[in-house]
Amino acid sequence: MSGTKITIAGPDGPFSAYAAGSGPAIVVLQEIFGVNHVMREICDDLAGQGWLAVCPDLFWRIEPGIEITDKTEAEWKQAFDLFGKFDIGTGLKDIAATVDYARRAGTGKVGAVGYCLGGQLAYLTACRTDCDASVGYYGVNIQNRLDEADKIARPLMLHIAEQDEFVPPEAQAQIKAGLKDHPHVTLHSYAGRDHAFARVGGAHYHAEDADLANTRTRAFFQTHLK
Fold first, then answer.
1. Residues β-bridged to residue 157
2. Domains along the chain?
3. Which of 25, 30, 41, 72 gives a 20 to 30 Å CA spacing to 201?
4. Residues in CB range of 146: below 8 A, 6 or more apart
């Protein structure tokens, strides 16, 4: 199932998003590569499962419509440059606007799922918005945002890659210690897995653990959004 480009009215101006499907909504939060083929395929897959999937262009203030891959050194350099210029606070305002749009366009309830940068944003979406349920895959820098954990009032699931090159063991230990007893948070760790183990076609893709994480995510959203 393929989707279409839409426009969302944000607090700082309109920005584009990719949308597919119908039903309860899931906001898909991008990696550092923009709303690229990988993100659109995730949306299309969710649409095929009976969801309205919406992936906002969170880099629109820096370079609207950017979409790159993880296949070349030049693209990695470009992606990290975008990541360095990205402002978390303004990005969360865009996510909140996307959640509001998705709540109106769907059937009422809204979830969020994010990867890499989007994994951190999924955590912060649980902290700062009224999103009904959030899931983060191998989120970066969450250990630096644990002071916001007391704001989490709705279900949050985090998938942690134990060999994540961008989230070292000490950071993972901080995340687990800070969140393991939180009543709204569920943590899953994947031994031997590196960053982006769920990205189909990526260097660290691991089909078995990607399927396990995605199965857990589907069940989580079925429980909390339907």
1. 135, 186
2. 4-224 (3.40.50.1820)
3. 25
4. 174, 175, 178, 179
3-state helix, strand, coil in the chain (%, to 5): 40, 25, 35
Cα dihedral angle (217, 220, 224, 226), rounded to 10 degrees?
70
Q: What is the pLDDT along the chain (226 residues), one digit of tens a residue?
A: 679 999 999 999 999 999 999 999 999 999 999 999 999 999 999 999 999 999 999 999 999 999 999 999 999 999 999 999 999 999 999 999 999 999 999 999 999 999 999 999 999 999 999 999 999 999 999 999 999 999 999 999 999 999 999 999 999 999 999 999 999 999 999 999 999 999 999 999 999 999 999 999 999 999 999 8
Catalytic-labelled residue, pool 194, 195, 206, 209: 195
| Nearest of 159, 162, 109 to residue 136 by alpha carbon | 159
pTM as predicted = 0.97
Say which residues have a Cβ less than 8 Å from residue 1's Cβ, sequence separation at least 6.
20, 21, 44, 47, 48
Is 100 a catalytic site residue?
no
Phi and psi torsions of 58, nearest 5°: -80, -10
Catalytic site residue from 70, 94, 164, 209: 164
Cβ-count burial of 146 within 10 angstroms (0-12 exposed, 13-18 middle, 19+ buried)?
Answer: middle
> What is the distance between the alpha carbons of residues 150 and 190, in angstroms, rounded to a whole number?
25
Coil, helix or strand at residue 72: coil
